[in-house]
């Protein structure tokens, strides 16, 4: 079954290339422009990503996250929220879905 799944990406790429050729689109130029735009986006978000990951690592390494979890545990247990999700509740607003990692 894994053999079929390993062909998904090459098949999709071939279908996209065939579609682009049918529409008489310059495939290489489009691919180049897309990659260039993607790299510009990476350059824009990389400093924020590095700062965010560093801050989260420092919070965990220093024990601050564990201390806040311990402080909030009595309140959270009264409203039925497990203390184990406290780090996720604190980090999610800053990192978005990156907190799930």
Description of the molecule:
The protein is an all-alpha fold and 101 residues long. Helix content is 79%, strand content 0%. It contains five helices and no strands. The model has no long low-confidence stretch (mean pLDDT 84).
Structural class: mainly alpha
Strand content: under 5%
* DSSP helix fraction: over 70%
Name the overall outline: elongated
Q: Any idea what the radius of gyration is?
A: 22 Å
Distance between the termini: 28 Å
Main sheet overview: none
Q: What is the overall pLDDT average?
A: 84
Q: What is the number of beta strands?
A: 0
Topology, element by element:
Layout: H1 2-5, H2 8-22, H3 27-62, H4 64-78, H5 86-95
Question: What would a concise description of this structure say?
Answer:
With 101 residues, the chain is mainly alpha-helical.
What descriptors fit this protein?
101 residues; mainly alpha; 0% strand; 5 helices
């Amino acid at each position: 079954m894994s053999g079929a799944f390993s062909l998904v990406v090459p098949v999709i790429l071939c279908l996209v290339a065939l579609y682009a050729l049918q529409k008489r689109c310059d495939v290489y130029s489009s691919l180049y422009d897309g990659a260039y735009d993607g790299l510009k986006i990476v350059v824009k978000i990389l400093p924020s990503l590095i700062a965010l990951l560093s801050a989260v690592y420092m919070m965990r390494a220093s024990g601050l996250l564990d201390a806040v979890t311990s402080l909030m545990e009595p309140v959270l247990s009264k409203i039925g929220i497990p203390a184990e999700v406290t780090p996720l509740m604190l980090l999610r607003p800053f990192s978005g879905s990156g907190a799930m990692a």
